[in-house]
Write a structure and sequence with these properties.
Shape of chain B: flat
Shape of chain A: rod-shaped
Radius of gyration of chain B: 40 Å
Largest sheet of chain A: 12 strands, parallel
Structural class of chain B: mainly alpha
Helix content of chain A: 25-40%
Oligomer: heterodimer
Radius of gyration of chain A: 45 Å
Strand content of chain B: under 5%
Number of helices of chain B: 4
Helix content of chain B: 55-70%
């Protein structure tokens, strides 16, 4: 079977061989061309693939460098506000030097790969051990913001570097704004309490303001309190209110039962030594200082019997009763009654011209015992309508209240002064403003038995009742006229009177010539109403600007450990045009250092305290609104510096309804920090028995490091160098 | 003896090399495992210093309460009424005892009232600008809606 095939092959013609050669040639050429094409394609494609794979590699590296930058940024954020870290320490050192503005690199550090464990961990996971990420951090200050305490702005620059075997070094650079803001304002921070407008209920007997100043060892350093008189109601005594020629006073009523510690040796409580023991008993416990009976005859020459006594109703009444008694005998010549009637006619009805009256006064002056003592408003007001001043000898002070019920009703309001010096009354506080201590002198002439020598050698023993010495706005009787010699160093006039010209500062600092109207610690005589919390008008120190309260709440209130925490970071300003209230009542903790400035609207707060008392600080400044306390607790504690004060076109005469202040919401409120307000709204929102306690935070007065370094949320620059 | 030494040297070299490689491997492995963070672990913060002190642990409620309630005057502070107040009260020639100079000057220099006023004016400008921008945004949105409806 094979032979026929073999013979067939052998029989092919010569042309067939030529065709076969051509086909072979064609196939070979085609194969060659294909090979060239394939090689070309291969070379081309592999270049593109290489390029593509390199791009992918670079992008992956860039992402990893970004991770490195984020890691560095996190470290910077954690460290800039902690002076225990190198970066925090260097910023603190820079701040301490208080340098001028201008470009200045204040911190620079190379960050090796070993200090970026997270980013390099990612590098190992995604790229193997062929690459590593390192970086560089620098902080440059570019400007100084003038303020009570200067702040600085600049930028933080972070450079991330990736070194790889396969691709050239890649560098990623980003910048963010950085603010080094001093949150303190020494002028205001030294005040535990600053109230611009007049509060007529400062001495409310049932609502207490308690101030606890700082208590350092240095006797030259103490807290300040300013109590202003703006918005004082106009009245006949002060027709233009606070702007009257005379300065309306802010009176604080001493309450000697509690405040006696302030009085030192001046506190000598005792009853009067009266002839009638009943008055002695009545006076017991109502006076913190009394003098022993004083012989009136010592000062008798100070007065004229004809002009200084005839207006004293008690003496005139005695004289009239003598006239009345003797009138039955007026017609019988030679009798005492006749002589008295004749004398009366001769005097023309004026007791001052009456011999009988003058004789009576002269005799009384030889027998009178003058007595006075000091008491307080609460004792005069008494309990449930009963007061010792209703007893005749002690009623002289009543004329003061009658007089001022029309001239100035503000003087009628009183009670127990705020506890400005701590509950132990032993922490000095310097009080500014037209503030005066008030207590009352109650004076009388005790009962006297007089043997009258009448015409014709007749005598008559008469017992004269005690004579209360009434308050006289203008001296009309001997009680209101100056005596010589003085009774003692305190007493030039005899009458009952309020003591309301003594500075409260006398209690700790001794007598003071000045009666401060403006804050005496101000340079340049700035009025109290023109003092405001520190504010940067350029807004460059503002770290976070919010268009609404909602934006602030969303960004700055965070859930940490299942609790809402206010996360503070420098100055946050809220510009809510609707004036929506900032409700922080559901937030009980805050962390960081910050100041919240609300342009318009109330701020509602409940119990609010820092996570760390010494590291975290909060200041709230309401430019037009009230601090409103809201809580389910009966006593609310707020650890913050609270300020609510509106800047009016003319701060000297503001509209009370537009003033800012604090609404205690019917709760007792503790503030650990300080309180700066326009108005206390007459303590209407403090319940009876309630307390507004302000404990001045020494860390606010003398802050160790009141600086918050804030890093911008947005990048101000970002650049990538793929072939560094 | 010479032949024996010739055979030993390469063997020793190989052993030393192996040991070197092993130690290098261990070093790298150790270093590598040290850097790796387990899930949830806090990364090392920059710079590598203890982050404490200022941001120290939370303050307990007792400390917070004590800050308000327990404040006592220093024994070295001025005492009230230690002198004869009856004289002090009424003797206006006595020197005043405050030592205001003890504080640095910055404690007596308030910021000018105009500073706050200027700031308020700027805030008002910002508010107006913000309102205008919002109005413009709203009107452009309405325009886009109308154009979309026309198409």
């Amino acid at each position: 079977m094979r032979h026929p095939v073999k013979s067939q092959t052998q029989t092919l013609p010569a042309g067939a061989h030529a065709r076969r050669g051509f086909v072979l040639f064609f196939v070979c050429v085609f194969a060659l061309m294909m090979m060239v094409l394939l090689i070309g394609l291969n070379v081309h494609k592999s270049g593109e693939i290489l390029q593509l794979s390199r791009s992918i590699e670079q992008e992956r590296i860039v992402f990893l460098v970004q991770a490195g930058i984020n890691e560095m940024l996190a470290g910077v954020k954690a460290g800039v506000n902690d002076r225990n870290t190198q970066i925090g320490r260097e910023i603190a050192e820079f701040w301490k030097l208080n340098p001028a503005g201008g470009n200045k690199v204040i911190y620079e550090a190379e960050i090796p790969a070993a200090r970026l464990p997270v980013a390099n961990g990612l590098v190992r996971d995604y790229l193997g051990a062929s690459a590593e990420i390192s970086g560089r951090i620098s902080i440059t200050v570019i400007d100084k913001i003038a303020a009570p305490r200067p702040s600085y702005i600049g930028y933080l620059e972070i450079v991330g570097k990736a070194k790889s075997r396969d691709v050239p070094e890649i560098r990623l650079k980003e910048r963010r704004e950085i603010r080094i803001v001093d949150l303190s304002y020494p002028f205001v921070d030294k005040y535990a309490l600053f109230v611009k407008s007049f509060c007529r209920q400062l001495s409310h007997p049932k609502k207490k303001i308690i101030v606890k100043g700082i208590a350092p060892d240095d006797p030259g350093i103490y807290s300040y309190v300013y109590l202003g008189n703006r918005s004082y109601p106009p009245c006949p005594e002060f027709p233009q209110g606070a702007k009257s020629a005379k300065t309306p006073p802010v009176l604080l009523d001493l309450f000697f039962r509690d405040d006696h510690h302030l009085l030192g040796s001046f506190y000598r409580p005792a009853p009067f030594q009266t002839v009638d023991p009943r008055f002695e008993q009545v006076s017991a416990g109502n006076f913190f200082f009394v003098i022993p009976p004083f012989d009136f005859k010592t000062i008798a020459n100070s007065y004229s019997v004809s002009t200084d006594f005839h207006n004293t109703p008690e003496l005139v009444n005695i004289y009239k009763s003598i006239l009345k008694t003797s009138s039955n005998y007026a017609g019988t010549e030679g009798t005492l009654g006749y002589m008295i009637a004749k004398d009366y006619q001769k005097a023309g009805g004026n007791p001052g011209n009456s011999e009988v009256f003058r004789s009576m006064v002269y005799s009384l002056m030889q027998n009178w015992k003058y007595q006075y003592g000091y008491t307080d408003y609460a004792s005069i007001a008494g309990d449930s309508g009963s007061s010792f001043v209703k007893e005749h000898p002690f009623s002289g002070i009543g004329e003061y209240f009658v007089e001022y019920s029309t001239r100035n009703p503000q003087r009628l309001v009183g009670g127990k002064m705020p506890v400005l010096f701590g509950e132990g009354r032993d922490i000095p506080v310097y009080v500014e403003g037209p503030v005066f201590l008030r207590f009352f002198k109650i004076a009388f002439l005790d009962q006297a038995k007089v043997k009258f020598e009448l015409f014709g050698g007749e005598t008559m023993d008469v017992t004269f009742p005690p004579v209360p010495l009434f308050y006289e706005e203008k001296p009309e009787t001997f009680a209101g006229k100056t005596c010589s010699p003085q009774i003692d160093e305190r007493t030039k006039v005899l009458m009952s009177a309020p003591i309301e010209s003594l500075s409260v500062n006398n209690l700790f600092f001794g007598a003071n010539v000045k009666k401060p109207k403006t804050p005496t610690s101000v340079s340049g005589g700035v009025e109290g109403y023109d003092v405001f919390p520190a504010f940067d008008p350029t807004l460059r120190s503002v770290a976070h600007l919010y268009k609404s309260v909602g934006d602030f709440v969303n960004e700055r209130i965070k859930m940490i450990g299942g609790k809402k925490v206010l996360d503070l970071d420098g100055v946050s300003m809220i510009l809510d045009p609707a004036g929506a209230p900032l409700d922080l009542s559901s937030v009980e903790k805050y962390r960081g250092k910050g100041r919240i400035i609300l342009q318009r609207g109330n701020c509602i707060v409940g119990n609010l305290s820092p996570i760390s008392l010494h590291a975290d600080t909060l200041g709230i400044y309401l430019m037009f609104g009230n601090i409103v306390v809201k809580s389910s607790a009966s006593v609310v504690s707020i650890y913050a510096s609270l300020a609510a004060s509106t800047n009016f076109r003319d701060n000297s005469s503001s509209s009370v309804s537009a003033e800012s202040g604090i609404d205690c919401g019917g709760k007792s409120v503790n503030i650990y920090g300080n309180l700066f307000v326009d108005n206390l709204f007459d303590l209407r929102t403090l319940p009876d028995g309630g307390k507004l306690t302000i404990v001045h935070d020494p860390n606010l007065y003398f802050p160790a490091y009141p600086v918050r370094v804030s890093i911008g949320e947005a990048r101000s620059l970002m650049a990538v160098d793929y072939d560094a | 003896m010479h032949r024996r030494t010739q055979g030993f040297v390469p063997l020793l070299g190989i052993l030393v090399s192996l040991l070197l490689l092993l130690s290098l491997f261990l070093v790298f492995r150790g270093a590598g495992s040290g850097k790796k963070l387990s899930p949830g672990e806090r990364p090392v913060l920059l710079p590598q210093e203890e982050v404490s002190g200022e941001s120290s642990g939370p303050t307990d409620e007792e400390t917070l309460t004590a800050a308000i309630t327990a404040r006592k005057a220093s024994e070295k502070q001025i005492r009230p009424g230690t002198n004869d107040l009856s004289e002090l009260f009424f003797d206006s020639n006595r020197a005043f005892m405050t030592e205001l100079d003890k504080l640095p000057p910055e404690y007596y220099a308030p910021q000018s009232v105009d500073t706050t006023r200027n700031g308020l004016l700027l805030l008002e400008d910002i508010r107006k600008a913000s309102d205008e921008a919002e109005k413009a945004r709203q009107s452009s949105l309405r325009l886009l809606e109308r154009e979309g409806a026309a198409r």
